[in-house]
């Protein structure tokens, strides 16, 4: 009697990661060196010399939100994270929007970071004495040239992400060791030798007199911390799901220490006008002030490593978020394909790269790289505040029974997440109102309130359109189940 051969099991994601991999992914995605190196100028332009204060204030709601992520992940580990948790607790429409905000915000970040990476590579080429190539001037401030070069880097890191997430996180670990060593040495040098006096008022948030400046500075500071939640995107590829939360918390506290350390160092070495003027080239400028060549090039090399690692760590969680949405049929089947060779969502990872590359090319409409960076930070900050706030509220709603059954545990599962979520949503709402009233016309400029508001408004509108398409056209059961997601099936037992 003929018997048909057994069907081969479909390819699955491989559980190969540990806590170190989670730390590497979260820390690379947060990109402390990049944030310090190019973001301190933007923060100084907003809150003056009170960057340490606004970073400390921003850390409090972020810590509450991290607590929410860890609690939700212990209850329901899923690579879709906020998309799944918000959908089940607050409803499928808000759940879909949370997933959409996360994905679009990260793709926007990848598009802009590609240009930043290209600019850093060009700065490095100039340092090496290469200023022209085949008649083309290698200008780090050229948005077009920086973007094109950055896209080549994006393709390269996408290849490493496709061939295996463990290899990618190990590569990120070595990049982190180098860039943190450079950052610690040069910032420590600046703290010791800087000729601008230290002042405790730098840590006083009440010294920021303007409410709009405080709100915008807070959103910028939240953006500094953004990315630690990338560790939760690989929860289905981690041997012990508790390692995901551990990795996220370790990375988060490390980022706080580095941000405070860097902000104090910059303000010891540079005056406020210098900070604002140098903008995204602040770390390079610091290296030139403190050391002679070739040592002065080390901060620039560290910045390049940070940008590359950040790009790679953005591709990985985005593809996995789309994979979670794809298996619920809220997104197309392309995102559910797992490479049998590499055990990764290879097709989705390449598609994410292609979308980010297209957006980077569209971003060339903004003429100056500095304006492009600042516009992106302002826009993404509101998006991040929205999806972090919704996820924290989802935790408070889901575990509200702890208020009666376990009051001590309720502090971590209900009160801290709930207050943190409301704080971020409130600040986001205040800032959106400020943007809407600060300008009387639309202009492609980071100083134009309507432009800064148009980007998050467009993300919300497009998310509603995509949610309607998923519900009524794809007929995804995610909406009929009230946001309950289709978790990845467990592998068959050997018994």
Automatic annotation (TrEMBL):
Topology class, membrane: Multi-pass membrane protein
Keyword match Glycosyltransferase: no
Keyword Cell membrane (UniProt): yes
GO molecular function: transmembrane transporter activity
Record-linked Pfam families: AA_permease_2 (PF13520)
UniProt-recorded name of the protein: Amino acid transporter
Alphabetical keyword list: Cell membrane, Membrane, Transmembrane, Transmembrane helix
GO cellular component terms given for this protein: plasma membrane
Residue ranges that the Swiss-Prot or TrEMBL entry lists as coiled coil: none
Membrane-crossing segments per the record: 51-72, 93-122, 142-162, 174-192, 212-232, 244-266, 300-322, 342-366, 372-399, 411-430, 450-470
Location of this chain's protein in the cell: Cell membrane
InterPro entries found in the cross-reference section: AA/rel_permease1 (IPR002293), APC_superfamily (IPR050367)
């Amino acid at each position: 009697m003929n018997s048909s051969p057994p069907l081969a099991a479909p390819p699955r994601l491989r559980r190969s990661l540990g806590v170190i991999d989670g730390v590497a992914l979260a820390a690379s995605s947060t990109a402390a060196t990049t944030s310090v190196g190019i973001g301190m100028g933007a923060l100084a332009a907003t809150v003056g010399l009170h960057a340490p204060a606004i970073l400390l204030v921003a850390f409090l709601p972020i810590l509450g939100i991290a607590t929410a992520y860890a609690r939700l992940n212990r209850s329901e580990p899923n690579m879709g994270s906020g998309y799944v948790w918000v959908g089940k607790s607050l409803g499928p429409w808000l759940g879909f929007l949370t997933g959409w905000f996360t994905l679009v915000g990260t793709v926007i970040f990848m598009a802009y970071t590609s240009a930043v990476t290209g600019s850093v590579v060009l700065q490095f080429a100039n340092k090496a004495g290469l200023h022209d190539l085949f008649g083309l001037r290698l200008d780090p401030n050229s948005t077009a040239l920086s973007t094109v070069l950055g896209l080549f880097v994006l393709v390269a890191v996408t290849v490493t992400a496709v061939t295996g997430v463990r290899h990618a996180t190990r590569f990120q670990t070595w990049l982190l060791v180098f860039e943190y060593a450079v950052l610690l040495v040069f910032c420590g040098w600046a703290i010791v030798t800087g000729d601008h006096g230290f002042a405790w008022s730098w840590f006083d948030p009440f010294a920021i007199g303007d409410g709009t400046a405080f709100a915008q500075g807070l959103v910028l500071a939240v953006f500094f911390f953004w990315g630690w939640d990338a560790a939760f995107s690989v929860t289905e590829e981690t041997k012990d799901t508790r390692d995901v939360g551990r990795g996220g918390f370790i990375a988060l506290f490390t980022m706080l220490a580095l941000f405070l350390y860097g902000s104090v160092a910059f303000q010891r070495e540079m005056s406020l006008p210098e900070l604002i003027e140098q903008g995204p080239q602040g770390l390079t400028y610091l290296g030139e002030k403190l050391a002679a060549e070739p040592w002065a090039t080390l901060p620039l090399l560290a910045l390049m490593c940070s940008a590359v690692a950040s790009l790679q760590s953005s591709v990985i969680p985005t593809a996995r978020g789309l994979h979670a949405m794809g298996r619920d049929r809220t997104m197309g089947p392309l995102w559910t394909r797992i490479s049998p060779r590499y055990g990764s969502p290879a097709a989705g990872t390449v598609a994410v790269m292609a979308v980010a590359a297209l957006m980077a090319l569209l971003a060339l409409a903004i003429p100056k790289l500095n304006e492009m960076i600042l516009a992106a930070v302002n826009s993404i900050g509101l998006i991040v505040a929205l999806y972090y706030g919704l996820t924290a509220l989802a935790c408070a709603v889901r575990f509200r029974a702890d208020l009666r059954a376990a009051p001590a545990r309720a502090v971590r599962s209900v009160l801290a997440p709930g207050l943190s979520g409301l704080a971020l949503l409130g600040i986001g709402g205040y800032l959106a109102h400020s943007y809407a009233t600060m300008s009387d016309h639309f202009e492609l400029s980071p100083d134009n309130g309507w432009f800064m508001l148009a980007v998050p408004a467009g993300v919300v509108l497009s998310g509603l359109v995509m949610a309607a398409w998923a519900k009524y056209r794809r007929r995804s059961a995610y909406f009929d189940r009230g946001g309950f997601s289709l978790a990845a099936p467990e592998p068959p037992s050997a018994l």
